[in-house]
Amino acid sequence: MEVSAKHEGQTLTFFLVGELDHHGAKGLLENLEREIERTLPLSLVLDFSGVTFMDSSGIAVALRGWQRQALPPNWAPHWMSWGTSRPPSARR
After folding, report:
1. 69 within 8 A of 33, measured Cβ to Cβ
2. What single DSSP character describes residue 75?
3. Which residue from 2, 14, 42, 54 puts its CA 20 to 30 A from 25's CA?
4. What's the pLDDT tens digit per position in 42-53?
5. pLDDT at residue 71, as a whole number
6. What is the pLDDT of residue 66?
7. pTM, to two decimals
8. Phi, psi (deg, nearest 5) at residue 84
9. Apex CA 74: angle with CA 41 and CA 38, to 5°?
10. What is the distance between the alpha carbons of residues 74 and 92, in angstroms, rounded to a whole number?
11. Residue 35 contacts residue 69 (beta carbons within 8 Å)
12. 91 DSSP β-pair partners
C-alpha cells in the first residue's frame, strides 16, 4: 500500500494505491491519525481510486478516520474521493 497525503486549505486528502488489507491498515491508520492531529482539517478526503483490493480492514480505517477528524459541532464534512457528503440525517 502506497499512501500520500496533501493538506490544502482546510482539506486533508489521502491518496491510496495498492491493496488495503489488514497488513497495511495499521500503518495507514497511524499515518491518518498523525496527519489529522497535525493539520486539524475541516474536510477529510480518502481517495480510493488507486486501491486494487480492500477487505474489511480498509472500511475500518475509513470509519476510524472519520471518527478521529476534528470537527466543530453541526459541521458535515465532504467525504471520500467521489465527493459526496453525508446526508442531512447523518450530520451531527
Report:
1. no
2. -
3. 42
4. 888 999 999 999
5. 53
6. 80
7. 0.70
8. -85, 145
9. 15
10. 5
11. no
12. none
> What is the rounded distance in angstroms from the CA atom of residue 19 to the CA atom of residue 50?
9
CA distance 64 to 67: 5
What are the angstrom distances between the C-alpha of 55 and each of 22, 41, 52, 79, 90? Answer: 8, 26, 11, 19, 24
Strands 2-8 and 43-54: unpaired
| DSSP H or E run through 19 | strand 11-20
- Cβ burial of 72 (10 Å; 0-12, 13-18, 19+) is exposed
Q: And the C-alpha cell for 9?
A: 486549505
Q: CB-based burial of residue 30 (10 Å sphere; 0-12 exposed, 13-18 middle, 19+ buried)?
A: exposed
pLDDT of res. 18: 94
